[in-house]
């Protein structure tokens, strides 16, 4: 069991948890994720690791409450325990040694940039961070990203805070003005990551996209996170979660994200349910 050490509501429907997980924090690096399972019959939830404290043996994850499993998690508080925390999973971000780097995050993808920006700075890069949200009330991790980046730009779709527009626009403006970058890392909605890739493609900037949004099981067994990268089939959870954004078939990804929409809605309405095998075992006992 993994105790909840802290719980904070960052915005409506977005909660930050700090969990006691010493073995996970001992081995993880930026870009990797963990899988949590609240209780025996709960679904597995893949989550990026947003922060860690090796001395305390804790990791921090940020959860958006969108369906049954995350609603179940939201009922837990400090002192409660989560049944499973598995990780670190996936491959760490390959930062390399860039001179000038950019992190672009959207919504609940922003917390993943907390560790990424830190590693960019450790690699000696000058870092520009651009984070985007629908509206001011949903802005999260602004202070944490600002504390590590050399420059931070916050955008909102409705103009209620920061730059009025999309996260791609400030980067596009700077590139058109002649600024150059060696690396761009983007985490967020699939449509946003595709847009970032299209902005950087003409300039030949190495661009990495984190495909966490398409994961379901997180271990390569379910196959739901299949993605075409450079014409080859990859699994985001075990081959990634990060790939060359210019090689990713984002249109295929967007279609895949809708496959389980009906089942997700049914699960939310029905509440907890054991798998068929567990039901049969229960009948035999």
Briefly say what this structure is.
By secondary structure, the chain is of the alpha/beta class.
Structure, described:
The protein is of the alpha/beta class and 285 residues long. It folds into two domains: 2-89, Translation factors (Elongation Factor Tu (Ef-tu), domain 3, Beta Barrel), CATH 2.40.30; 100-256, Rossmann fold (3-Layer(aba) Sandwich). The protein contains ten helices and 17 strands. The protein has helices at residues 22-27, 68-74, 113-122, 142-146, 168-176, 190-200, 236-239, 250-256, 261-270, 276-284; strands at residues 2-11, 14-20, 33-37, 45-48, 51-53, 58-64, 81-82, 84-89, 100-106, 126-133, 151-156, 163-164, 183-187, 206-210, 226-229, 232-235, 242-244. The strands form four sheets. The chain has a seven-stranded mixed sheet, with helices on both faces. The chain has a five-stranded antiparallel sheet with strand order 5-6-2-1-7. α6 links the parallel β13 (183-187) and β14. It is globular, with a radius of gyration of 19 Å. The two termini are 25 Å apart. Mean pLDDT is 87; it is low at 272-285.
């Amino acid at each position: 069991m993994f105790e909840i050490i802290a719980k904070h509501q960052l915005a409506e429907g977005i909660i930050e948890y700090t969990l006691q997980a010493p073995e996970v924090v001992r081995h993880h690096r930026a870009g990797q994720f963990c899988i949590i399972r609240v209780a025996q019959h709960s679904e597995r939830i893949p989550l990026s690791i947003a922060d860690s404290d090796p001395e305390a043996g804790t990791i921090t994850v940020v959860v958006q409450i969108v369906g049954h499993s995350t609603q179940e998690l939201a009922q837990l508080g400090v002192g409660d325990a989560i049944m499973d925390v598995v990780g670190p999973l996936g491959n760490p971000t390959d930062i390399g040694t860039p001179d000038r780097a950019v992190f672009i995050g959207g919504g609940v993808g922003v917390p993943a940039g907390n560790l990424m920006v830190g590693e960019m700075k450790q690699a000696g890069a000058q870092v520009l961070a651009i984070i985007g949200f629908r509206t001011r009330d949903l802005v999260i991790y602004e202070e944490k990203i600002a504390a590590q980046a050399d420059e931070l730009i916050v955008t909102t779709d409705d103009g209620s805070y920061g730059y009025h527009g999309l996260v791609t626009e400030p980067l596009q403006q700077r590139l058109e003005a002649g600024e150059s970058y060696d690396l761009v890392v983007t985490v967020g909605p699939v449509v946003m990551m595709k847009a970032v890739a299209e902005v950087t493609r003409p300039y030949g900037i190495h661009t990495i996209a984190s495909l966490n949004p398409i994961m379901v099981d997180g271990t390569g067994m379910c196959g739901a996170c299949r993605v075409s990268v450079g014409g080859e089939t990859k699994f985001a959870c075990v081959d990634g979660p990060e790939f060359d954004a210019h090689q990713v078939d984002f249109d295929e990804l967007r279609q895949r994200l809708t496959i389980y929409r009906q089942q997700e809605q049914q699960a939310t309405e029905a509440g907890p349910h054991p798998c068929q095998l567990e039901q049969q075992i229960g009948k035999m006992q």
